[in-house]
Amino acid sequence: MTVSRRKFLTIAGGGTIAAATAASAGFMNTRVPHRAIAPWQLAGSYGDPRKNALSYALLAPNPHNLQPWLVELVGDDTVLLWHDSEKRLPETDPFDRQLTIGFGCFLEQMALAAGVAGYKVRTEVFPDGEKGPVARAVFETGGEADPLAGYILSRRSCKEPFSDTEVPDVAVRALESYATIVTDEERVEEIRSITWDAWVAEMQTPRTLHESVDLMRFGKAEINANPDGIDLGGPFLETLMLAGLVSRSVQSDPESRGFREGVRIYDEMLHATPAYAVLRTAGNDKADQVRAGRDWLRLNLRCTSLGLSLHPVSQCLQEFPEMALQYGRIHDLLATNGETVQMLGRLGYGPDVAQSPRWPLEAKLLNG
Ligand SMILES: Cc1cc2nc3c(=O)[nH]c(=O)nc-3n(C[C@H](O)[C@H](O)[C@H](O)COP(=O)(O)O)c2cc1C
């Protein structure tokens, strides 16, 4: 069987490039990076309740899929969550704000999974200050299952154009207890324009562009060998790679044809957005950021339960000097009284997308 369709390539920060190509179903199957997505099948298969909850936690959304977590098991009921100091985004996330949000997502997903198994988790964040572990989590009996846990395995960040179907009022109302939902056409258009300008600013700043390019994994073999970062795989992209149209040097060169095509398609994707979800905090310390991550994870799961797609678009929230203009614009629009916009996400109806790669739990355990 032959199929012909457009396929989108995720590049720096979630950018895309289009390729029209044809592939047989057999060839498609051979390009699935089975080893890299195995942790999605292994979740919940561990005997120790902490390992079991952690096997779900590591499927949490996190910036550039960096998976900066390391886990230490202490005694028979405690988890210490550490930040792997080699995993940082110094150019686009100089204060680890986004990475800390990712840790919040991890902690919330761990707690949800623990609840299903009958445990509640008592969590203290940065118990020894910012140089110590991100969190100490103690598992206790008496937890309850939260219905959101049922969506952990189907949750995604959907980096694709959304249909122009409006988000219905009933869904907006359901989501309003999780985040601010923006559907007003004029305001949506303003945000679209900021997200686009911000994406261009990140691409035009060589050191931020290269930070993303360095994290790209090209094709199945690279993705299986390093199941993190920005994964560029599948039969369509691998065909383009063989043709030399997608490569590390192409993605690094704003003058190349492949790069320019990526810009065009990312423009199309960013503009195919009928609504936004916004998370703000009054303060902006590490605890606020962890809380924002926990809230984002719950929002993402609630969207999944409603059949809605969510896609973080973080460029305009980044704290490097070349982004200051867009950072100011988005805060003028969405924040008051010195609030920080912690997360901004495209919201709408997108296509089904594949699971993203993960390192297995064993690669993240410091002991046990
Ligand atoms: C704090 C934070 C910021 C993120 N920013 C972006 C972004 O700007 N663009 C993007 O495409 N994805 C962004 N993501 C989504 C991650 O790329 C995604 O979670 C990761 O690749 C794993 O994929 P998954 O969420 O589908 O499991 C962000 C996620 C988090 C938690």
Topology:
Layout: E1 2-8, E2 18-24, H1 25-30, H2 34-42, H3 49-57, E3 69-74, E4 78-83, H4 97-116, E5 119-125, E6 135-141, H5 169-175, E7 180-182, H6 185-204, H7 206-214, E8 216-218, H8 219-225, E9 230-232, H9 235-242, H10 248-252, H11 257-271, E10 275-281, H12 286-305, E11 309-312, H13 324-334, E12 340-348, H14 361-364
Parallel strand pairs: 8-9
Antiparallel strand pairs: 1-2, 3-4, 4-6, 5-6, 7-10, 10-12, 11-12
Helix pairs in contact: 3-4, 4-12, 6-11, 6-13
The structure holds flavin mononucleotide.
Flavin mononucleotide binds at residues 13-14, 61-65, 98, 101-102, 105, 156-157, 159, 312-315, 356.
Structure, described:
Helix content is 41%, strand content 19%. The protein is globular, with a radius of gyration of 20 Å. α4 (97-116) packs across α12, α6 (185-204) packs antiparallel against α11 (257-271) and α6 runs antiparallel to α13. The chain has helices at residues 25-30, 34-42, 49-57, 97-116, 169-175, 185-204, 206-214, 219-225, 235-242, 248-252, 257-271, 286-305, 324-334, 361-364; strands at 2-8, 18-24, 69-74, 78-83, 119-125, 135-141, 180-182, 216-218, 230-232, 275-281, 309-312, 340-348. The chain has two domains: 2-33 and 156-348, NADH Oxidase, CATH 3.40.109.10; 36-154, NADH Oxidase, CATH 3.40.109.10. The strands form four sheets. A four-stranded antiparallel beta sheet has the order 3-4-6-5. Strands 7-10-12-11 form a four-stranded antiparallel beta sheet, with helices on both faces. It has 368 residues and is an alpha+beta fold. β3 (69-74) and β4 (78-83) form a beta hairpin. It has 14 helices and twelve strands. Flavin mononucleotide (FMN) is lined by residues 13-14, 61-65, 98, 101-102, 105, 156-157, 159, 312-315, 356.
